[in-house]
Specification:
This protein is mainly α. About 75% of the residues lie in helices and about 0% in strands. It has 75 helices and no strands. The radius of gyration is 62 Å and the shape is flat.
Amino acid sequence: VRQAMIDAGGAVVAAHGKEHAAGILDLLEKSLKDSDSVVFMGGLARFFKAGDPQVLVVLDRLLETLSTPSERVQTAISTCLSPLMKLAKSEDARVLDLLFDRIANSDSNDTHVRNGAAHGIAGVVKGLGNVSFKKHGILDRLKGMLENKKSFQCREGALMTVEYLAQRLQRLFEPYTVQLIDPLLKCYGDSSPAIRERTDHTAKAIMSTLRPSGVSFILPGVIAGLNAVAWRPKKAAVELLGAMAFCAPRQLGMCLPQIVPPLLEVLSDSHEEVQKSGQRALGHIASVIRNPEVQLHIPALLKALNNPEKYSQTALAALINTNFVHVIDAPSLALIMPLLDRSLRSTDMKVKRQAARIAGHMTTLADHKALLPYLDVLLPNIKSTLVDANPETRSVSAVALGYLVDGLGEDKFPDIVQWLMEQMISPDSTVVRSGAAQGLSQVLGLMDIVRFDTLLPKILLGAARQTTSVREGSIGFFVFAPSSMGDRMEPYLRRVLPVVLHGLADEAESVRDISVRATQAIVAQFALSSLDILLPCLEEGLFDTNWRIRQSSVQLMGDLLFKIAGEERNVPDITTMADDDGIAKASEKQIAEALGEEKYQQVLAAIYIIRSDVSPVVRQQALLVWKSVVNNTPKTLERILSVLMGMIIQYLGSDNDDRRHVASRTMGELVRKLGDRILPSIIPILEKGLLTGDSSTRQGVCLGLTEVLNSAPRKQLESYLAEVIPTVQKALADPLPEVREAAAKAFDTLIKNAGSAVVDDTVPSILAKLEDEASADSAINALREVLGVRSKIILPQILPSLLEQPLTAAKSNALVAVAEESGHALHKHITSILKALVGQVAEDELARAAASAVVVSVEEEGIHFLLSDLLSFAKNKEDPQVRRGAAVLVQELCSKTETDISQAVPQLLQTLLYGLMDKDEGSMRAHSAALQSCVKAIPKERQGNYLADIRRHLRHCKTQLAAAGEVLLPGFCLPNGAGVAPLLPLFLAGLRSASSEVRENAALGLGDIISLASKAALQKQLRLVIGGLIRGVGDRFPGNVKAAILATMGQLLDKSEVATIKSFMAMMQTTFIKNLNDPSQRVREQAGANLGKLISLGTKVDPLVNELLNGVTNAQDEYKETMVLALYNVMRQESSLGARILANAETKLFALVDHPEAPVRAMACKAIGAFSKLAADDQFPAVLAKALALDDASTAALCFCQILMHASCRVEPANAEVLAAVQRFLGHANHEVQLCGLRSIAAIITGNPALWANMSDTLMPVLVLEMLPNGSSDIRIHCLRGIKLFAKKQPNELRQFLDTLVPELMVRVKDRTALPVKLAAERALLHALQINKDPSVLQDLLASDSLPKPQQTAVSDYCKRILSKL
């Protein structure tokens, strides 16, 4: 009643206040004690004018009444203040300060005072407008009061003010809400329950007034509060999010998708209070749900959200079992969609499937606008379950995706089709491709057919791509498309079915498997409606060239026939097939009616033929289908026999080998089953088939004949032999090889079933045709074929005829054919064949062709017999033609055979190398050619294994040649290097081996070849050899390898001509100089020796000598000796050097004679000797004098000796210094000095006879009377050698010394204590007495009385007994 009266009073004031303002005001002033009167007074104030003193009176009265403990009165006053403040703007600061002061200074129990002040502030701000916020700092005041921890009144009053501002200003307050979020969150965590409760009321008030833009403003800040470390701020943020449930419906739908997920995470927070806040917040959201069906399940949903592992399945089952009548609203979705999100990500397969099923139906249950915000979460989960490992989960997810796209429109999923296409051909896994294909089929199945028509070409193109995953995914689409597309796919079957059938033959097993599933799906869906399309494709596939397509086609044909018969099962597996698994007779009749009798017979005939397929898998599958669709096989065969025979004959003439084989085997099976009933009609048909011009038909007839012969009983076959044998003979002579091959099989079968008499009837007629030129080729072809199947029986019958002399071209060709076809059996007859042919091979091309074919065709088991005979013939000492023929056949064997002859290579190499010593040039050349083929037949990786064997054989050859007084191997002296050419590549390859032993053997072997070859024969091979040697010596290998290579290079230089190796001289010089610094002394010495040989061929000397001199100076002490040796070798070969080079050489060489190492000093003396030969005429005496002036006697003697050995001819005959030096050295106490003196005498005798003539009278007595009796063995030997040299060079001058010389020599020859001295004395006495040249010398000696008689007798006797025989 009171409210009605208040409403009536307000209406009176509003209606008559303007005309009767003064009267009404007076009336109201009389009843000021009534708070409602104050409200009417506020309503009346809006009719006052600005500046009216009554305005301030009313304003003060309203402000005073605000403290009335009545929410209704305070609200009414707040409403009145808004228009009143527009008239009293000058009082705004005073009024606001008054109200804020009331809040701050009120008693803690005076809640109504603070509430009234808050209402008043809201009304004043509403009247003043939003400019008052900035003008009076209202927001800062509120924030300060909210954060005032000391004053409960301030915090509570500020919260009330914010709440009423939000209610009064509505949308105008939104811009300030964001700034108040943090203070509000802090208030949620206030220690006072009253403050926390008031904060909740304030938050709800704020949320109820927000627009979508306002929600988007504050939501990030609130959600960010959930990340706080302390639990109180986090709890505050949760409670504020819960308050958002009280937003307007439109705003609620927008914000819930963002609110609920963070709240769900809070449920698992570590702090209990935070968890409870999250549960309360979800309860707030649940409290605003308006859908009656969902309301029933709110407890279950909340439980599932709080404990998904335990309650998700129950909640999902409840939703699935609910019959929804009302649309699911946004708050309902806020609880359902997070549950679906979690469930779709669950590891429980059942939970996943339930969630996917619900998600798919959401488009029909929920408001689409409310559902759209959840797509960003829902779609990735559906995509994930779409590629789940569980097939049922993928299936449910595909359906759900289809419903979503269909319900919300493809425009909401702009990339879904493209994504599905990409995943369908993804290389990741089969599961991904299968799920995407299923999803795409469901999506396209619910779209307009135009969309499918657009994508189909791309899918079909993918089925032909090279990538396996693309093909598998593209064909996998058609596993699911028939069921999802339904009848709408039927018009596309003609385009789809060939592609899917082609996939049955794919190289990848996964593609084949998916193709089978796709064809089964197509057949299952369209078996009855599209029979005219499916049947021709499957019939064609039954005889496809690929067995996999045939297998699948047979299986699908069985499935198709079962569908036609009305059976709801597929063809059973053979392992589980029972006797009653076939279709009933009525169903068989139903199939015949559906297909028509003609087509029915064709299909059954095709299946029956495929039972004989070349592939066991196809045969097994065809047998299964036949047993499944045929009840009585004999009756059915009689029913389809005419059609079956027609198809067999057709396929016997097919171009395809497999079809012909299948048809022939089917015919054999028919013969076995039907026997006499069809045999009389088959033989004439086959004979007639051989007369056709079609080669495929003739081949097929032969295959069919083989099966007939193999299947027919022997007794029945004997009746037809007279017709069959000529037929086979004719087929054996067919011009086409494939026909002859088929005929040979028939011939083999005929022998098996009819006996060897068939051979006696066939082979002679073939041999008779050989001599007829017109039929020889066909006879040889026939011979090839029969030998291919029965060589062991036929060979003994035909070889005598073929080997009979003379050898004709036909026989030769026949022998070639025999060899090619009977290689496995030839070794048993190889001796007789070679005896008949080997002597003619070298001269007769026909014999060579036949024998070559024979030896090349022998297989591994007979190679031992063949080589034994060939090597035996190669060693034949009587007939060179036999040796030549054997060598030619070895060449043919090594160059053409595919049989492994590696075990015989050592024996072949030995025989062929020894054959290079053959006196017959033709045989020698044949052995050389055979050797080349043998070497080429050795694999590169094994060539190094034979180098040691070849060297051993070459040394044996060298020994035999030496015994015969020869040096060169005849085969190595053939023109153009024909004899050495076969071996050089082998040894050069050895130089490149990684093995040091192989390299050394290769280098030494090359040296052996060079030593045995003539200079002319080597010239064309020198470049090849030198290049290989230079490359070999450049590698880092042990010294023995380098020394061997350098030694071989030295041998090569001995047999080289300048023109041939001119281009290599610079490289060789560099190589030799480089090796002068090698750690190995052998290498250094050999390099130095080679430098000397290289100089003799014309290289520039001065730069080389200069380089060597520098090397002598800079070389380490251990290398100086070989460096000087190289210098010596170079200067020894040269005749002149430049003056500057000579001067430099003299200085450096004489500097070395004082070297502390004796070998270096000795080599320096040797080099000085070579240098003295090159010194100028006016310098030579100085060099000689310089040598004699050396301080060390042994060095001086050695240097003097070397000068005389190299340049004794340059000494003046009257040079007394030389005589004095020799006398001094001979009388020196040092043994080595004495030896140098003796060697000097030998050099003078050899090089300067005139000088010796002046010295002999003085020195001979010294030699004979002093040195010979008293010296050591070495002294005596050198003394005797000097005397022998004197006797050989100047026999007449020696005669004057015989009186004293002979007795001393006789003493020495009788000395048995030193055999070398005795032998040297014999040689000296032999030449001194000129036993073999001038007997008068001995006679004159004996005739004179210079020797005692006993001594004369002894000399005469010794000369007769010993010296005359030397």
